[in-house]
Design a protein that fits this description.
Elements lengths: L9 H15 L19 H7 L7 H10 L4 H10 L11
Length: about 90
């Protein structure tokens, strides 16, 4: 079924999934404003230079997050969220 005049993008679905995952882990829930638009193109070289890489040192990661107006607290929360479900005995 489709709803007239309502559009939910893949970006919206990811935001909702992130919110629901946090709630499932016992975190707080929050409203997700819908209306994000999906990118129609990708920029590989931009992603390599602007997004944090797994091998970046802390100074570089902090700078890249600062460039996107993230606080240190937000950076730590986002980086920590990316490790949920990926912990192994070898990485602890």
């Amino acid at each position: 079924d489709t709803c007239p005049n309502i559009s939910v993008s893949c970006a919206d679905i990811l935001a909702i999934a992130a919110r629901d995952s946090l709630a499932k882990l016992g975190g707080q829930t929050y409203n997700v404003a819908l209306g994000r638009s999906d990118a129609r193109t990708a920029n590989f070289s931009g992603a390599l230079t602007q997004l944090p890489a797994p091998f970046d040192n802390l100074t570089v990661q902090i700078q890249k997050f600062n460039d996107k107006n993230f606080t240190l607290r937000e950076m730590v929360a986002l980086a920590g969220a990316h490790t949920v479900g990926f912990a192994r005995c070898s990485t602890v």
